Every structure is written in C-alpha cells, then in structure tokens.
Amino acid sequence: MKLDPIDPQEFTDFVRYSEKKRTRTERFLDKIKPRSAAMRTTVLVVFVVLFSLFMSMWFFWRTLYLPEIQQHARYLAVELEILNNPNLRLYHNEQELDIDSYLKNRIGIEYITDPKQFPNIREKVIAEFFTNQIEAKLAKELRIEEATVYFQFKPSPRIWIQTPEMNGNWVREPLKTYANYSPELILAWLLGTPLIAGIIILTLVRQLNRPLRRLQEAANSYSKHGSAPYLDTNHGPLEIRQVNHAFNHMIYTLELTERERRIMLAGISHDLRTPLTRIRLSAEMMPDEDFLKEGLIYDVEDMDAILNQFISFMRDGSDEEPQDTHVNALLQELVTQFKPLDIRFSPQPLPPIQARSMSLKRLIGNLINNSKRYGAEPIEVSAYTDLEQDRLLIKVADHGEGIPEDQIEGLMQPFVRGDSARTVQGSGLGLAIVKRIVDIHAGELYIHNRAEGGLEAIVSLPLNPVAEEPTNSPTTLEKIRQSLSNRF
C-alpha cells in the first residue's frame, strides 16, 4: 500500500483563519472595546444605568422641576410687585396693614437694605442652572430686561432676588420646603448608582466567566501536554454545566483514541518487527554470491528505520515527565553517537532547563540525521541563551544546497518531503517529529537557508516555562456559594 503525501493546505487552514485580515473599522473597534467579556458587559450595563439616570432627570426636569420653577417665579413676581408698589394698600376689617410686616410674618419675605446682610454671591454651577430659569421667567413676568436670583443653602435655604428698580437692595425669601434637599444625596445618587451597579455587574460577570477560564486552561493544558482535568458538571448555571459535560465527553473520547493509538503502537512494534527479524535472519543465511542478499538486507534495514520513525512520531514524548536537563551534556552525547560524522560543537555556559530529556535528544538527533542525509558536512551544532527573550536557542546547520523557500513550511507536515529528498529512502516524518516535540515543550521551530549556503534549523525553548497552577479543591464557603448559585 502506498502512502500519498498529505496536502499541506489541510494543515494551514487554521493558520489562515487565525491570521484573517481585519477591516479598518474592526481594528478601530478592537482598540476602543474592552478585551474581556466581563469588562464589556460591565461597560454596557453602566451605560444603560447612566442612560436611565439621564432619562429620569430629563423626565423630572420637564414634568416636575421646570413647571415648579416657573410657577414659583410667577409668585415671586407678584410678591415683588406688592413690595415695590408704594400706592398699593392692604386692609383687614377696615384697618390698613403694613405690607412689609404682613409679608414677612405670613410668607417670610424681607426687603433687605443693610449691606452687611447682603448675600456673598459665589458661582455655583448646579444652582445657577436653576436660577437662570427663574431669572428668565421673572424678567418676563415683571416686563424688565433682567433680574438677579441667588440660592443660599446654608445656614438655611433662601432665595435672594434683585431687580434694577431696587437700587442695589435685595429681597430675601426663605425656602423651608427645600430644607429636605441634600446636594450630597443628589451627588451620591448620580455617581453612586452607576458605580455600585458597575461593581455588582463586574462581580457577577467574573463569577460567570470563571468557568470559561477553567475551560480555557483545560483546553490549553490538553493542547500542550495531551492531558486535561475533567470539569465540574454539578454546580453553576445550566449552560456552563452542559459545556463542561461536552468537554468532558470530548476528553474521554480523545483518551479512548489515545489508548487505541498505544495499542496500535504496541501491535506495530511486536507484529511487524518479528517478521522483519526473520527476513533479516534469512537474508544473512543466504550465500554471499547471491546478488539479492545485499539488496534484501538493505531493504530490511530501511523498513526497520521507517518503522522506527513511525513509532517515534506516535510516541511523541507527552507521557515523559519534564526534568532538569543539561543541554550541553545532551549535545555532547549526540556528537559521540554520530561519530565519525563531522559535527562541530563548542559548548557555552548554559543553565539547566525543564524538558523531556529523551524527547529533546530525539529532536536534535533527527535534525542532525536530516543534515547528514540531505545536506553536507560539516554539521554545525550550537546552543546559547537569549536573556532578553528568556529563551534557549539550539541551532543545527549543514553546508548543503538548501531547499526552495516555498517548500520549508510544508516540510514540517507528516509525509511531506522536499524535491531533493525524493531519491533518498525515508518516510518524511523526521521534521514532523521535531515539530511535534517542539510544540510539547511550548517552543518554536525556525528553518531557513543560510546566506553562506546550507540549511539551518533553530529550536527556541523557554528558559523558565510557566508552571500550571494546581486545581485546588473548593473550600466550604465556595461549596455554599455554589449551592446557592445552583438553586437560584
């Protein structure tokens, strides 16, 4: 059975989708919109609360405050006409009353002529918004060009009125009903309501997003290490429990697939190697003058090498525990292993890193083996640290002819081989194994042609990989909160 190369396009669709170009409008919205769903929901709710406050204030202003102010301005106009009209007389039981005393006793209006009692006028933005309305209405009722109105809140609410015909004097009226108004209370209502609503919504949304964060961490754990914890399906909203149940079912299915893969791997190791060993033994027992002997032994060795690559690809090393690895010692072992190949390696001081030693050794061995097969000696191997990026770089370079730039990306896919490698025996899994091991170590792989000739592969590994936080069992308080959330 012949294995056709897999189209690399099937492996690049995800990259193309991830790197889809966004329009100018989408990029602009990405800059101004909050990144997290919690902040987006909080901003949206706060906007709704502010809009509700604005509409409430506008409604009360148009239907309550403004008519009340205009009505009060009419009463003030009548009172001022009474005070400023010297020809007006007021009688009670045929007895004339003093208008100033009567208005002061009944309404509290006083005509102030003592400059020491005049109000100390200061700018008040909010108060002037109301007094401007009274001034306009009062000037219209009195048929004058302008009138001056001033609110005084302390020590008691009062309103001061001045018109041109008063010659600098003032009329003062107490506002006893306004004693219930509190600027602090109004300010707390305007600012506190959106603030408290934002805090409450942010807390609720963060609680709702916490299961999504656990789902993200579990998915990232599986993509990096091939294993993920099962998520809780007994607490939380119904939709989150359904998503967790689907994720757990997916992990269970993948574990079954992994188990079948291991069974198949064991079958390949046992069932195919046994007949290959018998064929090799039979070939060794053939007479030396038989011209088929050498070719048969070569084919068996090549089949055994291809089988090893298949097993290496399937056994990606994800089940190997990371440990402190000294890269220089590992590279020195490989140099000794590949003798008498001309490998040039000069060790540099390197710190130990957390890595899967056997998998990392297999990775570098595959790069050296590819340089030997498809490149030319000498092979240069080096390792050094990039402290700015907090990475450790391992380079393997040959002095061959290199490969076309348009074929580099496809070479890291399974069963894909360069044009220059068609005449060389192999399965096309060497760089695919390398890429798979690099991904398990959360690293990056770069392959490019060197200016001085040959191909260079660079493996970039993190010096300090981020340790995953252990999933702690819920405390008693969290269990109570989860139980209440589940009920309500």
Structure description:
The chain has 488 residues and is an alpha+beta fold. Helices cover 54% and strands 13% of the residues. The chain contains 13 helices and 13 strands. It has helices at 9-18, 24-32, 37-84, 99-106, 125-142, 183-225, 238-284, 291-314, 327-337, 357-374, 408-411, 430-440, 476-487; strands at 90-92, 95-97, 110-112, 148-152, 158-162, 170-174, 323-325, 343-345, 353-355, 379-386, 391-397, 444-449, 455-462. The strands form four sheets. A five-stranded mixed beta sheet has the order 8-10-11-13-12, covered by helices on one side. A four-stranded antiparallel beta sheet has the order 3-6-5-4. Strand 4 and strand 5 (158-162) form a beta hairpin. The protein is rod-shaped and about 155 Å long. The chain starts with 8 loop residues before the first helix and ends with a helix. Residues 1-6, 415-427 and 468-473 have low confidence and may be disordered.
How would you summarize the topology of this molecule?
Layout: H1 9-18, H2 24-32, H3 37-84, E1 90-92, E2 95-97, H4 99-106, E3 110-112, H5 125-142, E4 148-152, E5 158-162, E6 170-174, H6 183-225, H7 238-284, H8 291-314, E7 323-325, H9 327-337, E8 343-345, E9 353-355, H10 357-374, E10 379-386, E11 391-397, H11 408-411, H12 430-440, E12 444-449, E13 455-462, H13 476-487
Parallel strand pairs: 8-10
Antiparallel strand pairs: 1-2, 3-6, 4-5, 5-6, 7-9, 10-11, 11-13, 12-13
